[in-house]
Amino acid sequence: MSSVFGEQGYATLPDGRRLHHVSQGQGRPVVVLESGLGASRVEWGLVMPLVAERTRVVAYDRAGFGRSDRDAHRRDLDRMVEDLGHLLDALGEERYILAGHSLGGPIIRSYAAANPGRVAGLVLVDQAVEDLDFYYWRSVRAMTMAMQSVVIGLARLGVKVVPAELRRVLALFPREMRQEALAEMTSVAELRTTRAEYAALAGGLARLRDSGAALPPVPVTAISGALSPSKVERRFRPALVAAHRKLVEDRPLGRHVLAERSGHMVPQDEPGLVAEEILKLVG
Fold first, then answer.
1. Whole-angstrom distance, CA of residue 119 vs CA of residue 116
2. Which residue among 66, 108, 214, 267 has its CA within the 20 to 30 Å range from the CA of 58?
3. Which region, left, alpha or beta, applies to residue 64 given φ > 0 means left and ψ of -120 to 50 means alpha?
4. Do 259 and 226 touch, CB atoms closer than 8 A?
């Protein structure tokens, strides 16, 4: 069955949960896209058709997002990596190119470190970086959790809160994609899952920071947004870009790319750039 985002399918996990995924195109290696915190397959809607011109590309809904089953387990980094592994097993390929945005970066890096033989290359799109103090600030975490609780409460009353940045990004999508994305992003179920992922974020990043896990010797491209549209982002954007550069600068197959017209939302602001960097690893 097809949708505006591609051909639909489901991967059944060992505990019976199902993960919904969409795919476009044909060919190998298969590219699998991992979304950022609080995001589903829809954030890749502008990138997928461009990658699909050369090979098969798959995006999926993490548990609790989009059309995937919810997960009663704590939604920490380890659990998300485990679910990604089951999805890749279900897709049936030997090796993949993995691309991850924001939180998707630590997820695919953690998977690659634990399963080096399954990964042919990585593209990290303005990824969250475990060495950045910002992710551990208690004041920011407390404020964010409180705001998320308020938004969930309003959604339960039928009031949909759509932040300005989300409205801006959705305006870049075709109408049908925009409607589907908005309906999912403002649902109580998806808002609750976003809060669950955020609640476990700092702990997961700390474990990744302390693990010393090494990436396999494959091409790794880090894409950084160059712009800082908010006051908060201006405080940490230079350190984030520096961390992205540091991750790849000493790797023989490492590459750092600056998205000059983007802030954090590179897959929507510069989908052509993201697709181009993915396709460089496809060969």
1. 6
2. 214
3. left
4. yes
Query: Would the pTM of this model clear 0.85, i.e. be above it?
Result: yes
The pLDDT tens digits along the chain (283 residues) read 667 899 999 999 999 999 999 999 999 999 999 999 999 999 999 999 999 999 999 999 999 999 999 999 999 999 999 999 999 999 999 999 999 999 999 999 999 999 999 999 999 999 999 998 888 989 889 999 999 999 999 999 999 988 888 899 999 999 989 999 999 999 999 999 999 999 999 999 999 999 887 899 999 999 999 998 777 778 889 999 999 999 999 899 999 999 999 999 999 999 999 999 999 999 8
Q: In the structure encoding, which two tokens stand for residue 158, read together?
A: 């039928």
Q: CATH classification of 2-282, choosing from 1.25.60.10, 3.75.10.20, 3.40.50.1820, 3.20.20.370?
A: 3.40.50.1820
